[in-house]
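ARCHIVE CARD
Drawer: 12
Card no.: 0347
Subject: one protein chain, sequence and derived structure
Cross-reference: see card 0346
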Amino acid sequence: MSNNPHMAYGDPLGALPPHNDRIDITASTGAGPSFLASNYRHGRLYSSNFWETDLARCGVFYLSIHADKVCVLVPQQFVREVKREVRTARRVQVDMAPHRPAPGQPPFGYRLIFDDGSDNPFFLAVGSGQFDGVLPASAQGKPLCVELYGRGPKRFASFAATFRVLGHIAELDPHR
């Protein structure tokens, strides 16, 4: 369980982070800076040290979750490719499911499917240690926004999204 009051890893079906004009969400990553901080003002991501972390340098995507918004922090080396992949997407499906995490990490992860109407849409599977907030089960069926950010943070895409809780996501536990 995190000591951060804005995270509820012990209870993924718990409450959303509080609605504030400014909120600091911090997650221990064990890489680069000793913490990753994403700051929000008026519901919008305005700063993050993600791009200075070893996670970003190693090409690891990160989700910063705040209220009804999922911000995808994209490692700079993948921004051009991700822009190309998502440009035809119309909506995003955000799935959460349990998986076997590393010790001390939350026992669930997320998958984001960028629905472009094709049989093979672009998706991201994000496991433990790659997100700093929780979408509660009560968020299912409610409006949600997914935004993608490159260094800055500079938003380069925004999508309406839906959320659901699943029993399993194959990309998170391929050997299950």
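Annotation on reverse: The chain has two helices and ten strands. The two ends are 25 Å apart (CA to CA).
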